[in-house]
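Marked as duplicate of an earlier ticket. Keeping the data here for the record.
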Amino acid sequence: MSAPAISRHLRVLESANLIERRREGRRHFIRARSEGLQSAREWMNQCMAAWEFSFDALDKVLAKERKVRKP
């Protein structure tokens, strides 16, 4: 991976508040931000709950279809 690609990835992580970056001269110091990870975890949990709900609803529809199609 090239240096510019790494820099772009770091900027994305920084804008998402998942990392914080500071410079001292030419050196960059990067640290993970647990607060940002907590927000990401909450968002993923919401998505997961929606997916599980959707799969449960799909399972019910499929079970109904199986009952209808049984001879």
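See parent ticket for discussion. The two ends are 59 Å apart (CA to CA).
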